[in-house]
Design a protein that fits this description.
By secondary structure, this protein is α+β, with helices and mostly antiparallel strands. The chain has 7 helices and 10 strands. Strands 3, 4, 5, 6, 7, 8, 9 and 10 form an 8-stranded mixed β-sheet that branches. β1, α4 and β2 form a beta-alpha-beta unit.
């Protein structure tokens, strides 16, 4: 996945603020197995039973069993179930120097392709924020945090990471469920970092990440990294915002 499950609330909060929504955007997740055999009609009816009042989809949207429903059918079902349906054009990448057969349109496939190439700047253009990776720090586990370096195994990664390489990152350490500290390579008011209001104020510290075969080595100058991240706490999540490839 591109966005870690533990980070989705932050992204939805950012969308709510960007769109000036009167109420927060919320997410409800269905196990695919529970809806995979639904006909297009049954699927839309399920949404209305949940209290959904409108649907926004792209021009290529397919839904229902074996993707049998298209946007025309969605519009018709919207009338049937008194749902407002909006079909919107695909978003194009602004200021992109990459031109491909899709006319530079934003898609999850293209984001994964650019992450696989280590192009985190282009990914940030498509997402509207820096790509953030989340690492699970389990309880009662000793993590190597010698001086200025922290080593994280691939198994701790929650979402899609960029290609092997050396990167400049902004670092957000969330210890347990309460305290959160931001150590970033850019200031807290930089919109590209995508920090939510829940983040503490960022300080200007250079941080680098080296990815090799999925394992991560984080380097922050000045030493005392373990203390800065409160590594002695009961687990938590470590977030890295990828800003540039070095």
């Amino acid at each position: 996945r591109i966005v870690a499950l533990s980070d989705r609330a932050r992204v939805l909060d950012q969308w709510s603020r960007d769109l000036a929504c009167r109420s927060p955007i919320r997410e409800r997740v269905f196990p695919f197995a529970s809806v995979r055999t639904f006909s297009p009609d049954d699927f839309v009816k399920l949404l209305t039973d949940m209290g959904v009042k409108g649907i926004v989809a792209g021009p290529d949207y397919r839904f229902g069993y074996k993707a049998s429903g298209d946007t025309q059918l969605l519009l018709e079902l919207g009338v049937k179930y008194n749902l407002e349906v909006g079909i919107v054009d695909m978003i194009k990448v602004k200021d992109s120097q990459l031109v491909d057969r899709d006319g530079r349109r934003v898609s999850s496939t293209r984001i994964r392709e650019r992450l696989g190439a280590g192009d985190v700047v282009e990914v940030a253009r498509m997402l509207g924020r820096s790509h953030r990776c989340a690492f699970t720090l389990p309880m009662n586990q000793t993590w190597t945090a010698e001086g200025s370096r922290l080593h994280l195994p691939r198994t701790s990664l929650q979402n899609f990471a960029p290609a092997d390489g050396l990167y400049q990152v902004g670092l957000v350490a969330l210890s347990g469920e309460e305290s959160q500290t931001t150590i970033g390579a850019e200031s807290a008011d930089n919109n590209n970092s995508g920090n939510s209001g829940a983040d503490a104020a960022s300080v200007s510290i250079q941080a680098e990440v080296h990815i090799l075969d999925g394992a991560v080595e984080l380097t922050v100058p000045g030493g005392g990294l373990g203390k800065r991240l409160n590594m002695d706490s009961l687990g938590g999540t470590l977030y890295l915002d990828f800003l540039a490839r070095l």
